[in-house]
Amino acid sequence: MILFKNIRWKNFLSTGDQWTNIDFTDSNNTIIIGSNGSGKSTLLDALTFALFNKPFRKINKPQLVNTVNEKNCLVEVSFSVGKKEYFIRRGMKPNVFDIEVDGKTLHKEADDRANQKILEDNILKLNHKSFTQVVILGSSTFVPFMQLSSGHRREVIEDLLDIKIFSAMNGLIKEKIKVFREKTKIFEIKKDAMIDKIKMQKDFIDELENRGKENISKKKESIDSIMEEVGQYTKKNLDLIDDANGLQTAITGFDGASDKLRKLGNLKGKISNKVSTITKEHKFFTQHTVCPTCEQDIEEEFRLNRIEDAQSKAKELQSGYKELEKAIKEEEKREHQFKKISKEIINLNNEISTNNSTISGFQRQVSQLECEIQTITNQFENRNTENDKLVSFQTDLDNLYIDLSEHKESLSYYDFAFSLLKDGGVKRQIIKKYLPLINQQVNRYLRMMDFYINFQLDEEFNETVQSPIHDKFTYSSFSEGEKMRIDLALLFTWREIARARNSVNTNLLIMDEVFDSSLDGFGTEEFLKIIRYVIKDANIFVISHKEGLYDKFEQVIRFDKVKGFSRIV
């Protein structure tokens, strides 16, 4: 049970820099009065702000700071849960959020949202919506249970029956299902990939076993064909070499023709020069009897001897010149034959070189084919290794099937648990169990307020109204006063359920202006009887500006404006 003990605030809304303090346990029932705008409803906003970081009414958070002082807005609440004492301090300008447990400050997370979650989930164990349904009944921004959406109604009931744990578990299981589905999808992809890998390995092994020998045979045939051509080119080269050697032998008979021809040419030149000199001498002595240089007479005998001698030498030289020309012609023939044979030898050597290049190309092809044969042979010889790989792949596939089966089995368990924890599962059964008690208590409180209808909630928390004078009525069909009676009956019922479940059971009950508009005089009297004699173990605060109610309560707190600030006077 949450036992609220005290609250105080300052610089909050219209309250100034002095503390406003209210002791929740000072009286069983208290009425808070004051004129409009005096600050009597500030209690609601201060309490929900301290606990849930939001005001009860529709007020923007920055507007909670007093507009005159504009700083040091602070609210402090003390309460106990079981044997532990808690103290909450929250403020703005500067921002403050402290949680104390038994006088020691609770370790704070870096993010205040995490600290707020600790407060709601671990300490209060209820959220703002559930708190307002059990502790506060307001007239302004409060949304009665029957005006909540079906989802919010369920949320409140889950808080009251302390079955939100199922929703939390459902959320966790939903995440687990998501993870397992992702993993299952990954395993499916891996399985398909492994099946393809195994098929490729089998095809590879078949290639080795069925086509390896055939490929080797074809490549060997290609090698034989190439080697046959190599043999032909080799034989042709041998013939060419024999021809070249024969020509080489033949050409030796013509060696030196060029040198001899050059020497004979030189000799021919010398003879030509000698003939020219003798001819000039013959001509000179034939044509001259007097020396043209010294103008002396040339002896006739000497002149005739020289002419005869010149003629004799000329004949000799002419005979030798003819023999020389004949020898030159012979050497020219020998030189021509040498060049012809040399050209033939060069052509033969060129052909031999071309054939050798072709043979080298064939030999490279043979080497390449032999390497391919060796590769295929190695693969063929290593087919046991490839079979081992296939066995390994098959083992991996079997393991994948096992993992996939386990994940699918786990996924089916999680799906089953998810279906149990959904709204239509375990929670539905628990709610169904409590529905008769809820409907019984609601109608009990309605009768206490002199409102004789049979108000029933179903498992989806939709209402059914049965009454001799109300045919096919719903909550929205009633007047505002009748709606207020239903809202009060539900509020009291939720407190009974909370106390029975010990979930969000609390001593505090605050009602804001419930008498001021909707309840008539008779309804007010019946309501006062309920809060005085029926509601047990509660500290009830009623906020009102209705006159004539002071003597109905044990304690009266009056708010008023003093110099522009709200105070208890």
State the assembly state of the protein chains. Answer: single chain
Q: What is the second-level CATH architecture of the largest domain?
A: 3-Layer(aba) Sandwich
What is the count of structural domains?
Answer: 2
> How many helical elements?
11
Tell me the fraction of residues in β-strands, as a range: 5-15%
Largest sheet: 6 strands, antiparallel
Summarize the structure.
The chain has helices at 42-52, 112-124, 128-134, 150-160, 164-251, 257-287, 300-381, 383-421, 426-448, 480-501, 521-534, and strands at 2-10, 20-23, 29-33, 73-81, 84-92, 96-101, 104-105, 136-137, 454-457, 463-467, 470-473, 508-512, 539-543, 555-562, 565-568. By secondary structure, it is of the alpha/beta class. The strands form three sheets. It has a six-stranded antiparallel β-sheet, covered by helices on one side.
Task: Give an overview in words.
- By secondary structure, this protein is α/β, with parallel strands linked by helices.
- It has 2 domains: 215 residues, P-loop containing nucleotide triphosphate hydrolases (Rossmann fold); 195 residues, Helix Hairpins, CATH 1.10.287.
- It has 11 helices and 15 strands.
- A 6-stranded antiparallel sheet has the order 2-1-4-5-6-7, with helices on one face.
- α6 packs antiparallel against α7 and α9 packs across α10.
- The two termini are 32 Å apart.
Topology, element by element:
Layout lengths: L1 E9 L9 E4 L5 E5 L8 H11 L20 E9 L2 E9 L3 E6 L2 E2 L6 H13 L3 H7 L1 E2 L12 H11 L3 H88 L5 H31 L12 H82 L1 H39 L4 H23 L5 E4 L5 E5 L2 E4 L6 H22 L6 E5 L8 H14 L4 E5 L11 E8 L2 E4 L1
